[in-house]
Recover the amino acids of this structure.
């Protein structure tokens, strides 16, 4: 039987990045895009090119790197956005521009302050302009979930006529029930027929994003927009892993459909994104949560020991999770074994990255007996940020606060200059951050601080995520630090954020100089 393809459109790098605290630097975005390609997603929405020079740069670099998946940029229905999107993806092997305008009465009246006729005109002009850059144009009726179906038919006719080949109908505010979404998709699918592919983009405000996406497939949608770990604006988007695994596990219901996803890359993708964003999926999150395959009650454990299928509907290995989680390597492991393990985990490292990661691995193996796959994933992710390490921590000594004044003494290298200084603080972490500020001359303002443990055991690695602003006019920067010692991980995270900030600022200056040249 010929199965119908469900196109998986991943928006982790765009809508996912809109999750509070999830911003990523260019190097991290490239790592994620490469993993999404290995996962087999059809379309990677790599960002919103007009949003910032950082977004543009990341989309441009992803376009140069990705060959199998289509690379897409979002654009509002305005010329400058569409031009930025077209320019950013120009070097991609397969390119798409995704343009959108709101179609609900509340958005048209209060946000856009435009009449429905003006909205249609703008949408058509935008699709026509986008077609001058690429063949593949997607048009979204933003807030379709609260839009009038007659109006959506009218605007769809017009944009299809202008050249759009995908019509996306987002439940932007996540308000619809599966039955309601089903009716909307069925109606639009019957109306549009094979003139365009119907896509859905469901938000999870009521926890219904995945259910709504599945109901949409049943009713004619052939593209699903989703994110790894369900990241996204507010309560997030439909989780890719849940949509895909439901299609697979319930192949009795979804017998006519298939995706291009290699499900064994789901767990690696989930870990990569959690490590980079510092946003861990909730422990009981379906498919990728820490407890998704844990059997706690005696009755369940007994059943699983006798026959796994008594309580397990998914095999962990189907999502690429090795529960035995192999004590992979130890301090005697050589570079070849290390590289071959990283190859198996799907990491492709340049020579320099391999050298620095191997050095970090050796340091770790000296102190930590068992090194698990998840430790290696976190280690590689923290080394491969793609950001130049302007400042590097050389040494750190702390005085704890028991009865005394918390203080930190640190040695930091900047280019070839090595500086040592010390500071006191309200607590040890405060002392560490103040010392870094003193040495580097930057005054960071800490907005968020989070520690999670990687893998298991008392000697688990600490993964610290900080959110810092170094300039009140610039967006907050995320930094990550990994170490067996939480304070050391904190210092690395803070310095990492500073390095990201400096690299971003350098890029902005470069762009300014470039544009000055052309004026
Ligand atoms: O939620 C939404 O409506 C969006 C659009 C830009 C597709 O993210
Ligand atoms: Zn969205």
């Amino acid at each position: 039987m010929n199965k119908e393809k469900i196109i998986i459109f991943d928006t982790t790098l765009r809508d996912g990045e809109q999750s509070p605290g999830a911003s990523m630097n260019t190097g991290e975005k490239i790592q994620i895009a490469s993993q999404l390609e290995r996962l087999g997603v059809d379309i990677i929405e790599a960002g919103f090119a007009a949003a910032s020079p950082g977004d543009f740069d990341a989309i441009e670099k992803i376009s140069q790197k990705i060959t199998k998946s289509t690379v897409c940029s979002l654009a509002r229905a305005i010329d400058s956005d569409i031009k930025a999107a077209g320019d950013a993806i120009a070097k991609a092997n397969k390119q798409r521009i995704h343009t959108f305008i709101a179609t609900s009465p509340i958005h048209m009246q209060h946000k856009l302050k435009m009449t429905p006729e003006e909205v249609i005109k703008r949408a058509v002009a935008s699709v026509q302009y986008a077609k001058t850059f690429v063949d593949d144009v997607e048009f979204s009726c933003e807030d379709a979930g609260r839009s009038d179906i007659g109006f959506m038919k009218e605007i769809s006719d017009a944009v299809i006529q202008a050249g759009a080949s995908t019509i996306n109908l987002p439940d932007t505010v996540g308000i619809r029930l599966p039955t309601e979404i089903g009716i909307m998709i069925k109606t639009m699918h019957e109306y549009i027929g094979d003139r365009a592919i119907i896509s859905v983009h469901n938000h999870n405000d009521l926890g219904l994003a995945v259910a709504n996406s599945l109901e949409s497939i049943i009713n004619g949608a052939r593209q699903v927009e989703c994110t790894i770990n369900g990241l996204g604006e507010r309560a997030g988007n439909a989780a890719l892993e849940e949509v895909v695994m439901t299609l697979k596990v319930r192949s009795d219901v979804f017998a006519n459909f298939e995706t291009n996803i290699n499900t064994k890359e789901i767990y690696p993708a989930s870990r990569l994104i959690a490590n980079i964003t510092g946003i861990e999926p909730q422990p009981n999150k379906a498919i990728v949560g820490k407890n998704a395959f844990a059997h706690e009650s005696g009755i369940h454990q007994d059943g699983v020991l006798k026959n796994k299928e008594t309580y397990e509907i998914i095999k962990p290995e189907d999502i690429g999770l090795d529960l035995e989680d192999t004590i992979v390597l130890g301090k005697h492991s050589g570079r070849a074994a290390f590289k071959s393990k990283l190859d198996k985990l799907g990491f492709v490292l340049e020579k320099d990255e391999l050298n620095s990661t191997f050095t970090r691995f050796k340091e770790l193996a000296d102190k930590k007996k068992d090194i698990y796959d998840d430790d290696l994933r976190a280690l590689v992710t923290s080394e491969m940020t793609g950001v130049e390490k302007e400042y590097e921590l050389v040494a750190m000594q702390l005085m704890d606060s028991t009865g005394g004044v918390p203080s930190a003494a640190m040695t930091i290298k900047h280019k070839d200059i090595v500086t040592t200084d010390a500071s006191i603080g309200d607590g040890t972490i405060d002392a560490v951050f103040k010392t870094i500020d003193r040495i580097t001359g930057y005054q960071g303002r800490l907005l968020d601080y989070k520690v999670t443990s990687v893998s298991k055991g008392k000697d688990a690695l600490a993964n610290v995520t900080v959110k810092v602003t170094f300039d009140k006019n610039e967006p907050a920067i995320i930094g990550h630090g990994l170490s067996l010692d939480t304070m050391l991980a904190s210092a690395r995270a803070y310095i990492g954020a500073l390095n990201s900030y400096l690299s971003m600022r350098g890029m902005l200056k470069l762009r300014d100089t470039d544009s000055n040249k052309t004026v």
The pocket of 3-methyl-2-oxobutanoic acid (ligand 1) is lined by residues 15, 74, 100, 140, 142, 168, 170, 172, 201, 203 (CB under 6 Å).
